[in-house]
Request: fold
Amino acid sequence: MYSEQQKELTGKIFEIKRFSIHDGPGIRTTVFLKGCPLSCKWCHNPEGISAKPEIAFIEKKCAVCGACVDACLNGAQQIGKEGKRLFDRQRCAVCGKCADACYPQALLLYGTDVTADHLMDEISADIDFYKHSGGGVTLSGGEPLLQAGFCAELLKRCKMAGIHTAVDTSGYVQWDAFQKVLDHTDLFLYDLKHMDSEMHARYTGVPNQRIHDNLRQLGFNNKPVEIRIPIIPGVNNSRENICRSAEFLCGIPSLTAIKLLRYHSMARSKFAAVGREDTMPHVESPTEEEMARISDWFGEYGLTALT
Amino acid sequence: MSSLNEIETPVWGTFDEARKHLENQFEETVFDAATGLSAAELEQAVEDYLSKISSLPKVIQKAEAYRIIVTRGQIAIDPLDWFADKLDHGNILRKLCGKWQMEVETSHLPEETEWLNQARKIGTVDAVLDLGHLTPGWTFMFENGLLGLLANAEGFMNALGGKITEEQRDFYHALEIVYNATIEFAGRLSRLAEQMVPANPQHRQRLLTVSRALGKIPANPPESFHEALQFYYLMHQLIEMEGENIRSMCGFDRMMYPYYKADIEAGRLTREQAKELIKFFFTKFFANTKGRDNGKNFYFAGQYPDGSSAVNELSWLALEVYEELKTTDPKLSVRFFQGTPDDFMRRVADIIRNGQTSFVLVNDEAAIPALLKRGKTLEEARSYTLIGCYEPAVEGREIACNMSIKVNLAKGVEMALNNGTDPASGVRFGPETGDPGVFKTFDEFYEAYLKQTDYQIGKAMSCIKAFEAYWPEINPSPLLAGTMIDCLKKGKDVGQHGPEYNNTGCMGLSLGNAVDSLISVKTLVFDEKRISMNELAEVLKKNYEGEEQLRQYILHRVPKWGNDHPEADELAKKVTDWYTARVNGSRNNRGGWFQASMFSLTYRWSLGKYTGALPDGRKAGMPLSPGLNAMTGMDKKGVTALVNSVTKLDFSEIPNGSVVDINLHPSAVKGTEGLDAFVALIRTFFAKGGYALQFNIFDTEMLRDAQRDPERYSTLQIRVTGWNVYFVTLSEYEQNQFIEENKHVF
Reply:
């Protein structure tokens, strides 16, 4: 078993993305941490929802070579009739042996344990890019603050190395978790999904009270916060919801920006890959005109919302 | 001096209407029989005359042929055009050059010719006597006019006094012939323009401006912006006709600015009128190529010999024109250094990200040290010009023959695996470096690889050196040579060591495949002992047939160049250092040196076609890796890792240029933050000492290609509002949707 400190030095992540340019200022490296208390129907990283490791299967990359069938000790990977690849998740122990054997990367293990020091090696590699772009590191997910102790350790190291830090959060964690990272975080990227708590719960699985409380707390603590609002037609794009959002945000003194993100159903195939029921709403992306109109509504409150 | 303000309004604002016509100007020209001999008659006249003087030196023959063509050929003036340049020359001089080259090949150098042809088919090297990568002495020409050049020539000739050789006397004589003929040619155009006025009263002012300009230049130096541009294009066209490809139009902004400034300050020309003249001028370059290939290159910005920034008002104006034209030709190279204004880089990046990717960005901070190491002075190095695509050279003092030899660095692996025999053809084409099956260590294999590569480089160099000795017999170039002060001083043609610097380019391509293949051999055969050397050679001969598992293992589990991987990067540096030392330390046969470059152009296709399956997973006949990049699809860690890898190389030892291709989707560079990131990416590459960058902003066609061939595009990321995805992992429906949605960006 890990000691308490070792535990905080090890985190579970599912991806690292370099040259990330929309997750905070400049050129960044984004570390995606596994596990999220929300299950937004439009989630664009469904492989990050479960806190446990998962095997993803991207069928179109599969060469039907049978290496995974040989590697799997539980018979979860099979080749059926007419060479059809079958993946029986019931039998899968998520040991990752199949992914290890799959060279074309049709099978992937999402959720590996990494140490803060190991991550720092990869993060530091792009330090010149951060320097010239005003970029840095963003912890995203999933919900990174579910692993707040690990985040704190990692962010602390980044700050020691002079790297700008951002945490991309849903806000749905205990304030304790924020407190752990507060001193080491330069910027919070904070999602605001719906002002109506019932609607919020219907689409994300949780009410919004705690999210709002934590956002106010960040304001009290004068921590820079960039608000991100995914605009999902028919869910949160009503004038009423936007105006309530704007009113609420007027009370956050440390706001640095509001960004409106156009909903897109582009992550649909990711749901299938991890064997999750596809919950993405079947609605069109909002038009540029609609995005501009919503931005104007924020303008009525003296706020600037970027599209 | 002509004053353009005298001109009545209708002659301005005509570009858009005339554009289509101007783009076809070289195909649609109608020549009037009254102006001279037809191309066929001209060819006959040249042939007849040359048969009478066949005992004279080639340089005189060439000069006389040139004289006949420009003084007697049919000419034409387009009343819609601000510049006159049409001559029905029938490519006679180029054919003559081809004929003389053939004579040398068959009677003097049959063995060299045979070896070069074979090498091209086996895929080890592609080498030619490169007459086509050069730049005239533009500044010297503009400052002196042709009469000034002749006066210079005369002065230098007299200075030689009694020591002058027969050869030098012939050279000076040829100069006199071609320059006087050129002045006469301009006079013919000038008179024709004037004669056309009565029939074209609506174009009167334009025709008279053209006529006046050509009555003065190129004999005399230009004084107005219009005259300078007319001079510029006319001499470009004539030097090309003489038999050379001008691959550098030099620094547009720095050379043209004095004329522009004088006109603007004197109130002779408005900014808008200058823009229109540039449009007419640039469109000639597009009309030459129609965007097909080998566009002409101008460079912008950079620094003056004193180290100050060369960005001026004309730099900005030309970019504005280029953007409005939305053209692919001419190609623009932009030089940057610490003193280049930030907003200028931003402006260039903005045009590129909007899809006009016909730009090369070059870092002075990497180019200048490389030029200094090759013995150029600091002032020369600071005002280097770019030839072709990325090849730096000293304007007016250097003939760099940048594209003489192209070495396939990956082919040596195949040759080493087969003990010097090309497996596809069965031809023994390299030295016996031993049965690789008995090699005990990777170092032994690496040694064999170097020996194979060294052999091909050595053979190619000796062939090219043999050809270089015959340059004066193949392509005497008095018109070009006269623009270079050192040629005038020495009384020697460009092919006779006339210029101060006489170098020969030797390009290394497929670094990615070479490094990845060497690492595969090391990993599979020696480290993991997954397969024996002989088994590996067999697998490759069968083009991985039945060995897809192994190929997938190699592709995805063995380290690859371009991913910031210490072992791969170290090996790449080792191979590159070896290659550059091998090349840069070799003398050519024109009194200069071979100079290493690292890029690939279309040779990654032509030589790739004859390169068998490689240990890095690349199948037989497939294209080789581009430029200094990772093999296509193997830059798995993305662009920052690629930059980190590439900038570990020593660019000061790559004096003939190199390039990295950066592929980005329009969605990744969208908006203010996209532009910020794009600029920061360029800046970081330069700050880390990288030399040159060019960009692909992925378009619909490439995305469609990615759908058909996902393996090649496995690393292509696209940005979907707030997040990135790998394009190939999307379902077909999503891909189609994305392509459809982003169509407006392209």
